[in-house]
Amino acid sequence: MTKEEIFAKLQTEVTIRGLSPGTYYTYMRAIDLFLNWSDKPYEELEEIDFRNYLLYLINRGNLTTATINSYNAAIRFFLQVILEKDVNYRRTARLRKEYKLPPVWSIEEVTKFLSVIDNIRDRAIFINIYGSGLRVSEISTLKVQDVDSKNMRLMIRQSKGRKDRYTILSQSGLDALRDYWKRYRPASPEGYLFPGTTKEGHLGKAGIEIAFRKYLSRTDIKTPGTVHTLRHCFATHALEAGTDILYIKELLGHSCFETTNVYLHIANTKVFKTSSPADSLIL
Length: 283
Hints:
Blueprint: H1 3-16, H2 21-37, H3 47-60, H4 65-82, H5 107-115, H6 120-132, H7 136-140, E1 147-148, E2 153-156, E3 165-168, H8 171-184, H9 205-216, H10 227-240, H11 245-252, H12 257-261
Antiparallel strand pairs: 1-2, 2-3
Helix pairs in contact: 1-2, 2-4, 3-4, 6-8, 6-10
């Protein structure tokens, strides 16, 4: 079996299961790296090769737990589904997740970042990522008909987990979108608000990430940050403003409460205004 045949079969199996194109490309990249690392004919690869590759990835020391677990899932899929081999999960278990709080900017830092953006399109993108708690993939695929200005909400279609949801639309986000529309009048046959060069016709994630780094370099913000930091800021600042965490969970599109619960450990809420029993001691 050649690589081309492996990736063709992978495409078929991903499609049959209704997995996203993003999953296909993630699996394809991980499998390609595994095949390049191995020194066997592809059909002869077994569980022991899988285990040795996982050890190799861990010993490299420069990959996150999440990345290694992503490779684990892709190679398991390759061996079990593509090659139809038996793999013992207990011998190839995923790494225990690291529990780290994500970096979050203050409202002042968000303001600094947004204030240096001098491009109307980029301003509309980043204000709405922050104002609506969007993933970068969600803003890049937003369509004209997804903006509901009457009810001040955005329709997010088939996002992570292939789920539709609504999230709030801020007034500043709507104003930025209207300024952008008046200036550019984007023409997209598919209706994308931000047309681009991807094969689907919308702006690519990489372009948004490059723009983010450009604007961040213009500020004196010291706290680390990525595009996704703006989504964390939305959740944290909403929680600090008194929004119920269950509402935040729905707005973010999280499947389980555990994912949203992390913001309880970040936000400066009433939890951290609790009096310590040590303060009542008379020493």
